[in-house]
Amino acid sequence: MAEHPHAALxxxxxxxxxxxxxxxxxxxxxxxxxxxxxxxxxxxxxxxxQDAVLDVFxxxxxxxxxxxxxxxxxxxxxxxxxxxxxxxxxxxxRGKRMELDGGIVFRIVGDxxxxxxxxxxxxxxxxxxxx
Length: 131
Fold this sequence. Notes:
alpha+beta
């Protein structure tokens, strides 16, 4: 059985993100997309529009000096424009190491992601890493 198009879209997004291919990632995002990065750390917040979303991703890559690794473990879809990913993130930054399970709730319209709500199993650890 073929993979659902929304699951395939999410997988392509993870492939582009993990390889640092922000140009390819841009093609998967709606122009007015929104990314929600949880926590109270300096990068936490809501980012609206492709440029803002891709800019925070660039900052994440820069801050972790290429050590960020995101392993996609599962993609779930509902067939109505929602997908949920589960992943494991690891990175190093300023002498700190992060190892967190997380996920993203995606809202998809057509073949574009319109909204990304990221979640983590330990927000205190996330805040500590990014602070």
